[in-house]
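Q: Please design a sequence for this.
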């Protein structure tokens, strides 16, 4: 069940965060930012010392049965990136992307 979907920029900040309407909305935003900190720690550790490459593996980031959901999200994200009026690195404000994410969250919940 997807309760929060986030798109993260290459520079490690969120471009888009959407969560289901719950009383714990702030909790999901906090979890996204905390996850970014973990990724950042792994990346910075790689540059400081000789680190075992297996330690950098973050694990499977989505359940295998939800690959269709991931593919749909990726295709919609690609559409946003291909928009000539979108500046890479800006927050995603596309209504089509937002509607697609909302429909995914409704289907899953």
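A: Design:
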């Amino acid at each position: 069940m997807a309760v929060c979907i986030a798109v993260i920029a290459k520079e490690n900040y969120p471009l888009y965060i959407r969560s289901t309407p719950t009383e714990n909305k702030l909790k999901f935003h906090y979890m996204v930012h905390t996850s970014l900190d973990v990724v950042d720690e792994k990346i910075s550790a790689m540059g400081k010392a000789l680190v075992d490459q297996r330690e950098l593996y973050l694990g499977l980031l989505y359940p295998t049965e939800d690959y269709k959901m991931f593919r749909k999200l990726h295709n919609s994200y690609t559409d946003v990136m291909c928009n000539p009026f979108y500046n890479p690195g800006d927050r995603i404000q596309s209504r089509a992307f937002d509607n697609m994410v909302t429909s995914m969250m409704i289907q899953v919940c």
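Q: Thanks. Anything notable?
A: The beta strands are 4-8, 14-19. The mean pLDDT is 78.
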